[in-house]
Design goal:
With 127 residues, this protein is an alpha+beta fold. The chain contains 3 helices and 9 strands; from the N terminus they run ααβββββββαββ.
Length: 127
C-alpha cells in the first residue's frame, strides 16, 4: 500500500497540469480564399478547401507565430497567431518542476483565436 501511495505522489508531483489536460497542438480554422496555401517558415501546413475553410493543428509555443498565406496571382498575406496564457497551468500552483515542464513544452500557452478570417489582395499585374 505504501508503494502505491508513493507512486501516486510521485506521479502527481512529477507531472504538470498543462501536460495532463491540454494537447501540444491546437486546431485553428482558417477562412479565406479557396486554394490558398498556409505556410510556416516555408513548410506547407495546409490548403484552404473549396468551401473557403481549412482546420489545421498548430503546435503551441510561448511567443507569437507568423504564418504566410500564398496563392498564385495574389500577394502573400501574413497571419499572426497570438500566444496567450493557458489558465489550466495555474493548477501547477507552487510546483516549480511542473511550471518548467509546461514552459518547456509550450503548454502553458494557447493560441488566442480558434478561427481566423483573412482576405488576399490580387497582384497589381492581375488587376
Amino acid at each position: 500500500m505504501k508503494k502505491v501511495i508513493l507512486m501516486l505522489i510521485c506521479a502527481l508531483y512529477l507531472s504538470s497540469c498543462g501536460t495532463l489536460f491540454t494537447p501540444s497542438k491546437q486546431p485553428i480554422t482558417f477562412m479565406g480564399t479557396p486554394e490558398a496555401r498556409i505556410y510556416d517558415n516555408g513548410i506547407k501546413l495546409g490548403e484552404i478547401e473549396e468551401d473557403g475553410t481549412a482546420t489545421i493543428k498548430i503546435k503551441k509555443k510561448l511567443s507569437n507565430k507568423t504564418l504566410i498565406v500564398k496563392k498564385e496571382g495574389y500577394k502573400n498575406t501574413p497571419i499572426v497567431l497570438e500566444a496567450t496564457f493557458n489558465p489550466v497551468s495555474i493548477i501547477n500552483l507552487t510546483n516549480i518542476l511542473a511550471w518548467a515542464i509546461d514552459l518547456g513544452t509550450g503548454k502553458c500557452c494557447k493560441w488566442d483565436a480558434d478561427v481566423i478570417e483573412f482576405e488576399m489582395e490580387k497582384n497589381d499585374a492581375e488587376k
